[in-house]
């Protein structure tokens, strides 16, 4: 008990230390030339509002002379110029002493502010409460490359104003992310469920005959879930430790997967085209011996070309994000179609395990890293000390639509991970398949999709209130699971919903496929036998239309024609293919 109490005390102390970290905010330094050269320009700064507050309006910020004093670190009184920094904002180099010593000397020399130039990662200039009370001028960090750009663009005679405009709680780009994410989940869940049920029905009906396809979906088992989560943990830690070495491998995997997803999404539409149906001539090549259509080969080349174009121009922030988001959406649709959770029990296991994974790597890992940063956020946004400056492509990214300091501080985009779309989307797909099984008019599918949208809105609200990266699954998993489970309980179908009611392996076709709308009366046994295909014979001619068929009142005529058919197996109780709901076509 004593050890447990001590551990809790240490955890509480660590939590207090985390909440008492140095407060920092992004601001701007507006620079203009004293000689009336080019228009002014804003540069990002990181400042500590506990030194002194900056005005929120540029018009209220004094425009002062910016003096280059970076040859000195300003740690000793001898580092001050002879005439001081009267009504100036000096630029000094970082290092050799504390921020407090630099700010105190600058204030004593008459400075109205202090910019500390850093060649390393920008950190908030901190101090203690007593030091904050002694200093009345703002202090901020400016990157070395921005300092070079200032004097290269405006010359040596420049003036600068320090200010911190208000940041909107939520940017308008959240609307774009919301529509894209919810639309992808809804479309992917509907497509996966409809296609999966139709494929299972035709497989059951025809015994893996003509409907068998090469891109069979994969049923996820509990063992696969455990292995998947362990692999995710290992991959995330390796990316955190060896980001610059592994990021290019992730980019290559994304190009391959997204081109495959794009082909999978476009091929059904291309196959509907009435032209260019010619095939490759007979050959002995490994893939081409199946004689694929020329148009499908051209589609494959197009998909690969689109991925290559993104890979080459991925760092063009002006337009490459559009291509990345489009490839990400088709990648998610492809994964939702391919990966299948057979039961609600499997859905619950996967979502809860990934819920713990997401929360741990966002909220717990700051206690375990030397920098105090979240492993998940560092990997998703790219480490600030990365030599390659590459970003992982496994996110939806939309540029900020409001002018804010974040747009200038290497955070110009809002991000949503693909996992936050795929993981709940698998539950949405399961709900749609269950809807078709119990003929519930897609009530589970709609409820789970709406719950996903509500969870995403809650995520945005938490982001606005906390102003830090949020694990979206923390809000999406409870919303989707609780909504689905509550609906099943209310409809008294929780047992069927939990186990999938057997349709994970063999669907009881009569329980979900309605009778054919073309036949008003049930088919007689002799008719069913006559319509079966005898083994080893040529396909039988299609049956006559209903208006040309013999009358049921003449059994002797039907009996006379019966010897022309060989004996077949007992009639199947499954309905005709035309009995499938139109939504599955």
Q: How does this structure look, described?
A:
The chain is built from 17 helices and 11 strands. By secondary structure, the protein is an alpha/beta fold. The N terminus and C terminus are likely disordered. Helix 6 crosses helix 11, helix 7 packs across helix 9 and helix 12 runs antiparallel to helix 13. The chain folds into 2 domains: 141 residues, Glucose Oxidase, domain 1, CATH 3.50.30; 337 residues, no CATH class. The chain has a 7-stranded mixed barrel.
In short:
With 585 residues, the protein is an alpha/beta fold. The chain has helices spanning 2-19, 99-108, 129-134, 144-154, 173-206, 222-241, 243-271, 294-312, 320-338, 344-364, 375-381, 419-438, 443-466, 473-490, 494-499, 525-530, 555-561; strands at residues 25-33, 41-47, 64-68, 88-93, 114-118, 139-143, 158-163, 218-219, 339-340, 395-399, 413-417. The chain is elongated.
Please supply descriptive tags for the structure shown above.
10% strand, Glucose Oxidase, domain 1, alpha/beta, disordered N terminus, 585 residues, 2 domains, 11 strands, seven-stranded mixed β-barrel, disordered C terminus, single chain
């Amino acid at each position: 008990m004593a050890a447990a109490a001590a551990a809790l005390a240490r955890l509480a102390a660590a939590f207090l230390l985390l909440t008492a970290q140095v407060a920092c905010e992004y601001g701007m330094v507006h620079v203009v030339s004293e000689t009336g050269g080019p228009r002014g320009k804003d540069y990002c700064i990181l400042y500590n509002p506990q030194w002194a507050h900056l005005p929120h309006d540029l018009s209220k910020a004094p425009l002062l002379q910016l003096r280059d004093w970076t040859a000195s670190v300003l740690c000793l009184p001898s580092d001050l110029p002879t005439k001081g920094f009267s009504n100036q904002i000096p630029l000094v180099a970082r290092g050799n002493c504390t921020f407090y010593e630099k700010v105190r000397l600058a204030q004593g020399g008459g400075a109205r502010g202090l910019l500390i130039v850093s060649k390393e990662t920008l950190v908030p200039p901190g101090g203690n409460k007593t030091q904050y009370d002694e200093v009345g001028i703002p202090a901020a960090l400016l990157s070395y490359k921005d300092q070079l750009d200032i004097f290269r663009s405006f010359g040596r005679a420049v003036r600068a104003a320090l200010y911190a405009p208000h940041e909107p709680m939520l940017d308008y780009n959240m609307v774009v992310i919301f529509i894209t994410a919810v639309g992808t989940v809804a479309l992917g869940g509907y497509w996966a469920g409809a296609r999966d049920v139709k494929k299972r029905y035709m497989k059951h009906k025809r015994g893996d005959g003509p409907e068998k396809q090469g891109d069979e979906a994969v049923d996820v088992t509990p063992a696969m879930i455990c292995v998947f989560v362990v692999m995710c943990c290992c991959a995330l830690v390796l990316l955190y430790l060896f980001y610059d070495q592994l990021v290019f491998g992730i980019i290559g995997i994304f190009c391959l997967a997204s081109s495959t997803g794009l082909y999978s999404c476009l091929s059904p539409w291309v196959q509907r085209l009435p032209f260019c149906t010619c095939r490759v001539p007979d050959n002995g090549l490994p893939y081409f011996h199946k004689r694929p259509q020329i148009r499908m080969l051209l589609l494959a080349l197009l998909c690969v070309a689109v991925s290559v174009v993104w890979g080459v121009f991925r760092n063009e922030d002006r337009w490459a994000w559009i291509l990345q988001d489009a490839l990400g959406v088709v990648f998610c649709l492809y994964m939702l179609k391919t990966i299948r959770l057979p039961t609600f029990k499997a859905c619950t296991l996967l979502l809860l395990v990934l819920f713990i994974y997401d929360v741990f790597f966002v909220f717990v890992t700051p206690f375990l890293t030397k920098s105090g940063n979240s492993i998940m956020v560092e990997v998703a946004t790219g480490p600030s000390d990365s030599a390659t400056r590459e970003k992982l492509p496994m996110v939806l990214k939309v540029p900020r639509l409001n002018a804010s300091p974040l747009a200038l501080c290497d955070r110009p985009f809002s991000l949503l991970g693909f996992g936050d779309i795929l993981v709940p989307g698998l539950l949405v797909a399961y709900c749609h398949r269950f809807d078709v099984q119990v003929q519930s008019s897609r009530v589970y599918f709609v409820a789970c999709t709406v719950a996903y949208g509500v969870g995403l809105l809650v995520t945005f609200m938490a982001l606005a209130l906390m102003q830090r990266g949020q694990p979206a699954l923390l809000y999406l998993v409870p919303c989707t699971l609780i909504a689905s489970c509550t609906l099943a309980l209310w409809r008294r179908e929780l047992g069927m919903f939990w186990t999938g009611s057997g349709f994970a392996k063999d669907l009881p076709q009569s329980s979900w496929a309605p009778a054919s709308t073309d036949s008003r009366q049930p088919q007689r046994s002799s008719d069913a036998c006559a319509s079966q295909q005898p083994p080893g014979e040529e396909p039988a001619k299609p049956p006559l239309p209903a208006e040309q068929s013999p009358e049921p009142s003449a059994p002797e005529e039907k009996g006379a024609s019966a010897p022309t058919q060989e004996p077949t197996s007992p009639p199947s109780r499954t309905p005709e293919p035309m009995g499938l709901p139109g939504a599955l076509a």
